[in-house]
Amino acid sequence: MANQDDNLLKKIVAHAKEYGFVFPSSEIYDGLGAAYDYGQNGVELKNNIKNYWWKAMVQMNENIVGIDAAIFMHPTTWKASGHVDAFNDPLIDNKDSKKRYRADVLIEEHIAKIEAKIDKEVDKAAKRFGDKFDKAQFVATNERVLRYTEQIEMINGKMKAAIESGNLNQLKTLIEELEIADPVSGSKNWTDVRQFNLMFSTELGSLAEGANKIYLRPETAQGIFVNFLNVQKTGRMKLPFGIAQIGKAFRNEIIARQFIFRMREFEQMEMQFFVKPGEEMKWYEHWKAQRIKWHKILGLGEENYRFHDHLNLAHYANAACDIEFNFPMGFKELEGIHSRTDFDLKAHEEYSGKKIQFFDHQENRSYIPYVIETSIGLDRMFLAILAIAYTEETLEDGSERTVLKIPAALAPCKLAVLPLLQRDNLPEKGREIMDMLKYDFQCQYDEKDTIGKRYRRHDAIGTPYCVTVDHQTLEDNTVTLRDRDSAQQERIHINELKNKIEELVSLTGLLKKIQ
Question: How far from the centroid of its chain's Cα atoms is residue 264's Cα?
């Protein structure tokens, strides 16, 4: 299966480049590792994802507002947030391959292999027992499964203890005990584990020697926290309320790989929801339910999502989980939901010397609110959609096509207007239709090549509908509307086109399902 999946990722990377979704950054200079540019179709898809998130988060919730904070922040911000002292990855090098890895990720990948063995046992038993199979009972009683589960718990326990105590030697010992080999060379010749800070730093000021060291933000959340009072007072916000933001963040990832899954410059869509202390778990569960709903409504397959509860909680959290998605590389984090307590606002209050509290009129007292965070990687969301959308099909006539079955509301181009021929007034009629629809939809006009080739071209970029203008159009003002996924065509009057397309491709349908 792994090879197939590797193959799928390679196909997606090639397709994304060929059809203007994602290009390697500065490619004419041989590129820059883990940096990518979004092309003409990629930027449209990206904007549509942002729009879906923003509308679901801000427009649909009266108590959530948005901001756009600066990337550069006062350096003390990152002291208060803990990033200067604690934003480190435990890294280990293989002496033979000269490759560098995150020690915790190597251990987690080892655990994933044991989990795969459990899945294999469950699958075998399910085939053996058929309809009578009780998975829960099997997992709780099967000796081999229990042995694997015990192993996982033991490894997780040791890893958690090592990370929490900051004992890097214990991490190395665990890697050696588990006989983890370098995925590239198969060698087990490891260096010691050491910490590496992930923040990019630069200098503010015209003179380097008199300059202040500042950082490119490694997350967007702090811009929300430092603006808590500004937003609360100017918006007259009452608890509970949220502040949302979409923006770039920067991390000097040593192991940036797997296409746009892990990059050094990436985009986040985050919402921090401020609540009364003591009510955070109720809201944590609320946002878990809301966020998984937002994902599943897109129709990328319910089986491709799962919740993963954090065993190793960050220093600021009292509950945390990830929504994991089944990427071509397996299940990986797509979105994080964290109960951050009052850690952030309290730290900024302490470091700034300013009172950052909410005055509760009902209780007649001030207090620091607790925070529930939802944070999703926009680039990862983009990859998730491409991974499920990419489809190779053999049609009834034996021909093959590659189609991107992107949810219609997110597709880069919603509609292609195609005159059947480049004569007989068909292009003029096509232009007339194009001019009528371009105010409401992202449309493309295309008259080059045979109609079949043009359909294939639009299948490949995920255009959900094609309008074909033919000789009958000139007689009765009807066109054929072709559906991307089924390739079915229906005859429709030009006057009905706008409403029909609106119904098929608007975000409104999706947003109504969330409420």
Answer: 15
